[in-house]
Structures are given as structure tokens and as C-alpha cells.
Sequence to fold (484 residues):
Amino acid sequence: MSIELKQISELVWEIPKSGEMFVPGKIYADKDLIKHLVDDVSRGKEWNALVQIRNVACLPGIQKASLAMADIHPGYGFAIGAIGAFDTQDGVISVAGVGFDCNCGVRTLKTGLTRDDLKGKEENLANELFRTVPAGIGSEGRIKLSKNEINDVLVKGARFAVERGYGTPGDLIFTEEEGCVNGADPDTVSDEAKRRGSSQIGTLGSGNHYLEVQAVEEIFDEDSARVFGLFRGQVLISIHCGSRALGHQIGMDYLKTLESASRRYDIPVRERELVCAPFKSEEGRRYFKAVNCGINAAFANRQVIAHLTRKALRSALGVNEGTVTTLYDVGHNTAKTEKHKVDGVEKQLIVHRKGATRAFGPGRPEVPSAYRAVGQPVLVGGTMGTRSYILHGTQKGMDETFGTSIHGAGRISSRESAKKRWRGKDLVAQLKERGIIIKGHSLSGVAEEAPGAYKDVAQVVDVVHNAGIAERVAMTVPLISVKG
Fold:
């Protein structure tokens, strides 16, 4: 197996268009990050990101390039950290481009607290968050929804939660799409998906999901930080989760539907999860409507968790809930219709972001008016032992990557290999010595998320910052991390 790879600038690499590729592959990375991808190919690993980038470039209707960010690593069909934008007239929609945790994303809450305000109270807050926010495999929340109510969630998203008293209208203003995408149709979601999701709104789940109390360690851009309401030493809380079992079931259900559609419309399938259908087809439209339902469920989920987090802060520290506000909430496993310029012509596209974050630049109307002069906040999760970042979108990102940036550090070790190399109990102890409290529902789950299983998030952020795709605003460090 070999893949031609050309360096076209310091931080941009290309897989030239060849064979059945409609467009080239384009990767934002430095030499060290590229070496890891090339080594996977050299070792003959069938499941590797470069092959997946090339495969996506072969899908009908793809625009500009099959794109990959610096946190790229192999996924199901689409690599994680990949972007594929397709013309809605002659392009496709793919399960792999969304993934099985539809609208997995991050919400970051701002507080008026400083790091000094938490001294001596960290353990109490950690315990209260651990008790208050349900987490772990199969975890269920306090909200039990009837079939009609779950249908309302799928249509209304975070608005459903706010109408029930879980948060405020102000939260919606600072949520991507104001917490609700249009075009969701509950009839396109199976009863099994609804059943699985009916008790999971307001739950964190497991895997790489977390609720993390953080402190702003460094400000890179004082003007943008002021616009976002950030300052050094400030305590933030980041919530990383998605649509849980409901979104997973949507993906499983539509694998079968789009597998049949791929045969029907004579679309070659190069990897099982890369099945797809023309966006304009009946199968494609049904899947898109189901994806919108999953997106809305995830928005509702993070909205309820934010509400529970405020309750925990009040209980543990006496914090006024009204002082805990939403910085932003943005997803990174989505397929959305958006207008972008391609070769100077504005087109309606269906943009797949698989482990990649929307990062719209200044002036874009989808960005909240309070942030529009700067660009959209981009929330980048690191690891429970290192750091996370807040960036903002740029015009260059709009021009080159359909307004998309990284979502995290990106794995370098699989979950299984991480569990063999690290012990959860040891990690908890080691991080405690560094002043980081870990509350995990599963020690094996903690081991899977060992900091060493990930790339250096600072290196990954440097790539997109120096490439001008998104720019650094602030860096945070973890104080408390609640894991599933």
C-alpha cells in the first residue's frame, strides 16, 4: 500500500487527485503529525487516516478537497478530524461523515469565580458534580420522557429543555443554531432509537465524554478574550457529550438504509460505514432529517447538563446560578446545509464534520451578534491531564475549510492499547498529586482516556493557528474532571 503525499506549504499537505478521486486530499499538519500518519501506511495498517481521506475524495459531488485537520486519526469510514462538503444538487450524504455520536460537542460555561476562590473547596465541588450529573455507560437521568415528549426534543432541541425550566433563553443565544436545527422529522427516527434516548437527556455518558472544571491559564488575544468575557484565573466549566444512545441507534439504523442506497445508485463502497445516498434522494433526505433529530437531542442533553451544573455550583459553593452563563456550545459530529463560496460562486452544500468543529469567521450571520466582529468561539478539548483551548474562527478558515477547525488533540493510541499501558487507579493518583481531581465511574474508562493516549494538543492548536484557520484566544488547565 502506498499513498502519494506532497507538502505544498509549511503546514499543508496534499494527496494529489488520481484514479477515482474527484478532488485532492488536503491535510493541515506539521511534519511530526504527518509522520505518524505515514508510518501507519508504511506498517501496512489497513485502518489508516490517509486511505480514509482518499476514499472520501472519491465520493460524488465533493467540493474543493477531502479535508483533514491536525487532530486527524482513523475513524469509521471518514477519519476523525475530517471534513467533506458536497453539493446538495449532485452530492451525497454519508453515515460515516457524521458518526455514531451525532452532534457530540462541547458547551463551555463562564463563571465569575477565580482559581483562588476554589482553593480548599475543590473536593467538595468535585463530589457534588459527580453526584448531580449522571455519567457512565448506560447512565440514565432524572428526566423520563414519553414518546410524545421525546418527539418534542427531536424537533425543539435545547428549546425543549429551556421551556421545561432547564436553563434560560440566554443560553440559546450562545448555542450553535440557537440550540435547534430545522428540518428534523421524528418519523424518520426508529422507535428503538427513541426508547434508548428517552431516559438519557441530561446524562454525560462514557468514553471520551467529560465535565471539566477549568481555569484560564493564559490569554493570547486580549481583545477577543474581552469580547468572549474571559480573563486570567477565571473558572470555566466545559461539558463534552452528544446524543448518546439515540444518536448511535440512528447511525446503526441508517447504515442498512444507505448500504442499500449505495447499491441502488451505483455508488462504490470503499469501507462499510462509508455507505451513502444522493442528498436529493428519498433515502438521503430521510437520513438528513434523522441527523437533525440527533443534533437537537444532543443540544437538549448539554442544555440539561448545564442546568444541573449550575445547581451543583450553588449547592457546593453558594454560587448564584444566574452568574453562570454560556460562553458557547458547538458540535463536532454533524452534517449541515450551509452556503459557501466555491471558485467564487456561492453554493448550497451539505458539510460533514466528523470530529471537526464549525469555526465561522467574522461577519457570518450565524455567529451570535455579540461575537460577530471577532468570529465564532471554537472550543478545543485537550486531555484531563494537560490543557484545553478557546479559539475563534477566521475568514481564511471560511475560504479554505468551509469554516471548520480542530475539535481536540486527537488519539495516537487506541482505547484497548491505552488500557493495557495505563491503570486508571494510578492515573487518578498521579493527577491528584498535580492538583487535578478525577472522578470516574469506571477506572478502565479513565485508563482509556490517559493523557498519553493523545497527541500534544498545544502542537495541534499551533498548526491551525499558524495556518490561519482558527486563532488562539485562551488556554485553560483542568482542575476537576468528571468521567463516565
User: Anything to note?
Assistant: Residues 6-483 form a domain with the tRNA-splicing ligase RtcB fold (CATH 3.90.1860.10). DSSP finds 16 helices and 19 strands in the chain. The radius of gyration is 21 Å. The chain has a mean pLDDT of 95.
